[in-house]
């Protein structure tokens, strides 16, 4: 999978497309997935260009997994989730749809179903409400 500089996450990083941001530092960005599999689904990306895990420079990847851990903790608290599913796909054959490396943090509750991957657009007010809970948990 080659890097397309006009992929949606590159546009978000350049400020050319909107996102509901929950965390940012010099190297990484975390924002709400627009088609969440469960409420509170967050994406974490390195700012460095790289289509897949194998393409991201080591220092950026280290920072990205640490931000993923930070978000996993915050999402667990914010969404009162007993389980956190972390997913990361590489290549179309693995189900990757956006060619900029990213980690999914998805809260899971026993007995609750989850929506299919990238199928159902969330209400923007719901995304913002969940983002506020996650930002508050990050600040604890
Ligand atoms: P992948 O299939 O590449 O692992 O996951 C891409 C994810 O990006 C999907 O979960 C999908 O819902 C999400 N996504 C696609 N387009 C957008 C967008 O424009 N904004 C946001 N915030 N998420 C997006």
Write the layout of secondary structure elements.
Elements: H1 8-13, E1 21-24, E2 28-32, E3 42-46, H2 58-78, E4 83-87, E5 103-108, H3 124-139
Antiparallel strand pairs: 1-2, 2-3, 3-5, 4-5
Helix pairs in contact: 2-3
Bound molecules: guanosine-5'-monophosphate.
Structure summarized in a few sentences:
The protein has 140 residues and is of the alpha+beta class.
Explain what you see.
- The protein has 140 residues and is α+β, with helices and mostly antiparallel strands.
- The chain has one domain: HIT family, subunit A (2-Layer Sandwich), CATH 3.30.428.
- It contains three helices and five strands; from the N terminus they run αβββαββα.
- The protein has a five-stranded antiparallel sheet.
- A hairpin with a 3-residue loop joins strand 1 and strand 2.
- The radius of gyration is 14 Å and the shape is globular.
- The mean pLDDT is 97.
- The structure holds guanosine-5'-monophosphate.
- Guanosine-5'-monophosphate binds next to strand 2.
